[in-house]
Write a structure and sequence with these properties.
Layout (H helix, E strand, L loop, with lengths): L3 E8 L10 H16 L6 E5 L3 H4 L5 H9 L6 E4 L5 H14 L6 E7 L7 H5 L15 H16 L3 H15 L13 H6 L2 E3 L2 E2 L9 E9 H4 L7 E10 L14 H14 L8 E4 L4 H10 L8 H6 L17 H5 L6 H13 L13 E8 L4 E9 L1
Length: 383
Amino acid sequence: MKDVAVIGIGMTKFGELWNKSIKDIFVEAALKAIDNAGVGHIDSMYVGAMSGGLFVGQEHIGAVMADYLGMNPVPATRVESACASGGTAFRQAYFEVASGSSEIVLAGGVEKMNDGVDVTAALATAADQEYEVYNGITFPGLYAMIANAYMHQYNATREQLAAVAVKNHHNGFNNPNAQFRSEITIEQVLNSTLVADPLRLLDCSPVTDGGAAVILCPLELAKQFTDSPVKVISTAQASDTISLYERESLTSLKAVSDAAVKAYKQANLKPEDIDLAEVHDCFTIAEIVASEELGFFDKGCGASAVEEGKTSIEEGTIPINTSGGLKSKGHPVGATGIAQVIEIYEQLTGQAGKRQVKDARIGLTQNMGGSGASCVINILEAL
């Protein structure tokens, strides 16, 4: 297997992009990545997209995007793993380069969620239709169950959950591509509209349109295109039961811990070797539990860690979601995993501006589907 590097990045602004189609959004991000990498062609492309058929009535996403990008006849593959579609697309692109099948591969993700579809119902297709959705469950409801169980088991507080949103909005304020570039307070989170007790509106990631893309190539060729390639040193994936009720514990995300064990072993690293992480904070409780499953904190300590500033850029031992996370940057589900990689790339190459983590050398992305039924973790290193 060849060593693989990321050599270029591109993304749209995330938000309500009413005047752009799903094709416009993807092409904008892809062209930015191609231009940023300075490549004259691509050999293959992977597109993460959760539910184009439901959101905008468009399937056959791989071929559609290759066509509108003007890249025919390159092979183009749509990748779907619910909200982990982008991270999984990156993983597949990595394997194509590492295997030697292709040299220049684009990994992208896109979603257009604001065209009038019932977003709650569309997203619910990533849950168990017969045993969860049929009985009225939604993803806010599922994560509310996780939050209630966690608060009961570990004496966590609503203020600690709210601190996740406050931190991530603080980071997103300095991200020009973020959907919500605004600071918020604990009080605002606690007083926002109740969605599914105990989760309130400001505990939830927004409905977002957006696209993101990166270019990968063999590490041995990377210096032809950039003086600052970022090496992919690990990629790992795991699955868990689709239904929340089938799991041994409501306060664990086993797919995350299983993928993390594989990722650390492949990279020959420990959790304490990671300088920063982009974590799948679809809801505030998700970041807390995932941070524990990734080994950054002991079980039950993730909530207090946020409150104590251990995940902040300024004083954190492990800065988490420097981009603003899904909560502030936005969550166009198919593009999220790629956007996470872009944030790590910018951090490791010193391009993150006011969000910059000092001396960042190794970064991790954790992208998750559904209520944790799928998870993909990618670890990157500055050279």
